[in-house]
Design brief:
There is one protein chain. This protein is mainly beta. Helices cover about 5% and strands about 40% of the residues. It has a five-stranded mixed beta sheet, with no helix packed on it. Strands 23-24-30-26-28 form a five-stranded antiparallel beta sheet, with no helix packed on it. A hairpin with a 2-residue loop joins strand 2 and strand 3. The longest helix has 17 residues.
């Protein structure tokens, strides 16, 4: 009789328990020796000389007494957890092993599931990744996102958060590891490290690229900014592509959207362009404001943005349209059509201020051409920086930049770049009363560009 396959208990055949003087019946004894031979053959050799011919069945065991252990350390080994799950114990402590990493490519929106634990998903296009409820995914669930073809917006379930925010945008070309606590989601802080690196790797104040120009399709309402970067102190932002903003609307995120920090576009106004950095994903944007300083920008519509630096300026005309211009290296603007800022204006020996078509609220170096006439011969005119105070025109005084009249009521011409005051004014004075014309060809508005 072989051993019981269910219990493993061996019962020897009947008639194989002899007594003294009994004649032995060979049949049951032969069966016994045959059974013993079979069972020895079916036993696993301790020296490992032969393998198992059928699955090895071990006791379920516990974390402190595993079903398969070691003679030298019986608390280290394998045991059966609840639900048919295999467990590993080391010195009586449960050891957890991670699931195998599974790679998959995604070309659109996707909802991450509990089965995606330890998955790596590469998104080849802009997409929204929705996270299943944290309680469903469970503590220690983790997942890697690679944005490789567009930005990926990570959107937790309901009111749940990721790094304390309602959403997280993984910019194209970057990746992030997501970890679930069972109640919320966290990341490995990749973007925080990128932002910290951008802000702390260098300091300074500059603009590279981001050159403003009239939009080719809508030159009087839209302004373009070329690709580039800007830094002010410890704040940095960059744009890999050209960007467009319009003056016919208040600020909204994205290229082609409205750009004004407040109100509606005004006539004969100055709009300073400021580079913005979105705090959540470090993306670039632009706001247009009549304020010549960062501190004066209206920030009501700019929640979640950092104002980095002024990168240019645009002016509107009497019809509230953008004056068309050409921008040259080192922040030099030239109007496509020169502006006549003085037409037969009275000029005399009494110094006076004159407003020009240049940005308001900041000192500007205006590019000017002049024409002067008077009935007095040898008289000249002087147009100069108001910061110099009141000057006197003439060769015996402070000189001039409009040539002296050689014949009564004739004309003299001249040109010069002149600094204005913050009210966009210059001063003019002449050696004799006459009439003055001034053409403004453009201006220099220094933003920090070196090219």
């Amino acid at each position: 009789m072989p051993r019981n396959p269910s219990t493993g208990v061996y019962s020897k055949p009947a008639g194989t328990t002899p007594s003294v003087g009994q004649v032995i019946d060979p049949a049951p004894w032969n069966a016994l020796t045959t059974d013993l031979g079979n069972e020895i053959t079916n036993s696993l050799p301790r020296d490992g000389s032969a393998p198992m011919a059928a699955p090895l069945k071990a006791a379920g065991g516990t974390v402190s007494a595993p079903g398969v252990g070691f003679a030298s350390n019986p608390q280290t080994g394998i045991y059966l957890k609840g639900g048919g799950v295999l467990g590993f114990t080391q010195n009586g402590i449960d050891i957890v092993f991670d699931k195998a990493s599974v790679y998959a490519a995604k070309s659109g929106d996707y909802t991450a599931l509990a089965s995606d634990d330890n998955a790596v998903h590469r998104f080849t296009a802009a997409a929204t990744l929705t996270l299943t409820a944290a309680a469903t995914l469970g503590a220690n669930w983790h997942y890697c996102v690679i944005a490789d073809g567009g930005d990926v917006t990570i959107d937790p379930n309901g009111s749940e958060t990721i790094d304390g925010a309602a959403t997280l945008v993984v910019k194209d070309g970057y990746s992030v590891e997501i970890i679930c606590s069972g109640a919320a989601f966290f990341t490995n802080k990749l973007f925080a490290r990128i932002q910290s690196k951008a802000d702390s790797s260098a300091v300074g104040d500059f603009v590279v690229g981001l050159v403003p120009s009239n939009n080719s399709s809508s030159p009087t309402t839209h302004v373009d900014f070329s690709a580039g970067s800007a830094r002010s102190g410890a704040s940095f932002v960059a744009s890999a592509a050209s960007f467009t903003k319009r003056v016919t609307g208040t600020f909204a995120a994205g290229t082609g959207a409205g750009g004004l920090d407040a109100g509606a576009v005004a006539a004969n106004a100055t709009y300073f362009a400021y580079a913005l950095r979105k705090d959540t994903d470090l993306s670039f944007d632009v706001v247009l404001s009549t304020s010549a300083t960062v501190g004066g920008v209206t920030t009501t519509l700019l929640t979640g943005y950092t104002i980095v630096k002024c990168i240019g300026v645009v002016l509107t005309d009497a019809s509230s349209l953008i004056r068309q211009f050409v921008m040259y290296p080192r922040d030099e603007y030239t109007f496509v059509t020169p502006v006549k800022d003085a037409v037969g204006v009275t000029i005399s020996m009494a110094s006076a201020l004159l407003a020009l078509t240049v940005p308001n609220g900041a000192r500007i170096r205006a590019k000017l051409r002049f024409q002067y006439t008077t009935s007095t011969t040898t008289a000249s005119a002087l147009i100069h920086d108001p910061a110099q105070g009141v000057l006197v025109a003439g060769i015996g005084a402070d000189g001039g930049n409009v040539g002296a009249i050689q014949a009564a009521s004739n004309y003299a011409i001249g040109s010069q770049e002149v600094w204005t005051n913050v009210s966009k004014q210059v001063r003019h004075v002449a050696g004799a009363t006459g009439s003055l014309w001034i053409w403004t060809d453009g201006f220099h508005f220094p933003c920090g560009r070196n090219a």
